[in-house]
Amino acid sequence: MEWPNHTEAWRAWREALSGHRMHHAWLFAGKAGLGKHDFALAAARELVSEDGIAQPEGAHPDILVLTYLPKDEKEEKKREEGKPYETKRSISVAQIRQMQQRLNTRPTLGSRRAVIIDPADDMERGASNALLKSLEEPPQGTFFLLVTHRPARLLPTIRSRCRLLRFPTIGADQIERLLAQEAPQASAPDRAAAIAAAGGSFGSALNFLEMDLGEVANALRSLLAEPDTTFEQRGRLTKAIGPRPDRNRIQAILELARALVAEQAATATPQTRPGLVETHAALVELAGQAPTYNFDAGLLVGEIGGLLARATEASERANV
Length: 320
Known about the structure:
Layout: H1 7-17, E1 25-29, H2 36-48, E2 63-66, H3 73-80, H4 93-102, E3 113-117, H5 125-136, E4 142-148, H6 156-160, E5 163-166, H7 172-182, H8 188-198, H9 202-210, H10 214-225, H11 232-241, H12 247-266, H13 273-289, H14 297-319
Parallel strand pairs: 1-4, 1-5, 2-3, 3-4
Helix pairs in contact: 4-5, 7-8, 8-9, 10-11, 10-12, 10-14, 11-14, 12-13, 12-14, 13-14
């Protein structure tokens, strides 16, 4: 698909690619669901392509992609069979070491090789330290493309060695057009609800529809609307989320909660805004921790509900 928010990124990338000296490390930054992975793959292909050398249609031997591996052998088998599979929670130091071993050889087809790490902000600490050595002394012809949703989680020394390319959010009209292409079965009201909750992220809007998050969004909004003194709204949220939500659903709900809190904070009074800003920061921290720590899903759902309920109670006190 064609991403409407990539125009400036392509201009900057191709300008650098046509220059005399291409920077060896790039940081593709922006919230989740903005097509950064698609951009990285397409940009890597442009980078490694050379005149007179035939390029494969599918997987490219000179483009290495590091991302979450299957959780265990059972999940690995599912991946091999083309089935949905559960992944590990981070990118390990072993993956970085294995990649570095590959860099000891020359590229297969041409003179350039691209390494994509997605998401780079979910590398283990040891993996980050190992990668830093490659960024400090990059092998000839090797370029690193780091995809990140939360660049502040990366080591400052990694950020300082990368050229930053930011990806903007997408307008509501543009998301509507994309949803009409990618989710034509969704009703107009469902698409409108998805767009309202997405915070400018097409990926979040699509997740909203695919995961049927309408009731979750309503429960979150209810928690933000009035104090939940009887815990009724938190119970409604727990029911809407479901008894055993997987990690992808939890992440989508965290992104949804952040977007709704940010939306409310934008129109809040000076008295109530600080509590919403604090809640948003707590949700950002929780979203960053969730992929890498072994949270109990039920406790995590309770934490989300509790954060929103406390924000509403603080707002009520500020208005007294």
